[in-house]
Amino acid sequence: MQGVTVVGHPLVQHKLTKMRDRTTSTKTFRALMRETATLLCYEVTRDLTMDTVRIETPVAPTEAPVIAGKKLVFAPILRAGLGMAEGMLDLVPSARVAHIGLYRDPASLEAVEYYYKTPEDIAERLVIVVDPMLATGHSAIAAIARLKASGVTNLRFVCLLAARPGVAALREAHPDVPIWTAAIDAELNDHGYIVPGLGDAGDRTYGTR
Ligand code: URA
User: Fold this and answer.
1) Which ligand 1 atom is nearest residue 188's CA?
2) What is the 3-state secondary structure (H, E, C) of 141-185?
3) 69 pLDDT above the threshold of 90
């Protein structure tokens, strides 16, 4: 699908399968979330614009590439996005972090905002929105709309696992925002959970259920 990258790397797929397994412990699930996010971060940053700088090695002067522009922003959607953001920060430790607090109204499944804190100059930066599960798409759509209202124009979305309806909804609402995911499952159940999915990513990361 246009604007959607499924990261089929064997390491990502292997780790995702372990995360899907209901017998995987909280400790292992959290570690796998972090590791998988690092691998997805590598893919989502693959085409960043580069500049050239003049440096001196111990042997000779040379020109060498560096990432152009201001530092990236990772924007985890609370709370499950935090587990992924940690893994992305392992790879890009100087990135800034914008926290977006949204919860799903259990009846309507709509996203309700309760927290929003970003770097002041966020509008000048590439913002990578992070949430492990793209289910209905409501949270991702709301988070991206909120960032756009703050002036952000350069956005990407990365998740661990998506559902087909969520991908379609996000692409329709924000066609300018490309998506990276490790897999796309076919459907959602009546509670808005991805099937077969991996359960509640927040609960499994933090051991709350
Ligand atoms: N959020 C989750 O954590 N899991 C799902 O399956 C859907 C939304």
Assistant:
1) 6
2) HHHHHHHHHCCCCCEEEECCEEEHHHHHHHHHHCCCCCEEECEEE
3) no
User: Which residue CA neighbors atom 3 of ligand 1 most closely?
Assistant: 200
Residue-wise pLDDT tens digits, 78-112: 999 999 999 999 999 999 999 999 887 878 877 88
Domain that holds residue 40: 4-206
User: 33 in ligand 1 pocket by Cβ < 6 Å?
Assistant: no
pLDDT at 56: 98
Instruction: Output the domain CATH number for residue 53.
Output: 3.40.50.2020
147 lines ligand 1 (CB under 6 A): no
Total domains in the chain come to 1
Distance CA 153, CA 137 (A): 19
Q: Which residues of 114-130 are buried (b: 16+ CB within 10 A; e: fewer)?
A: eebebbeebeebbbbbb
Q: Where are the beta strands (DSSP E) in the chain?
A: 4-6, 50-56, 61-67, 73-78, 96-97, 99-104, 111-117, 127-130, 133-134, 155-158, 161-163, 179-181, 183-185, 187-188, 194-195
Residue 102's CB is within 10 A of a number of other CB atoms, namely 22
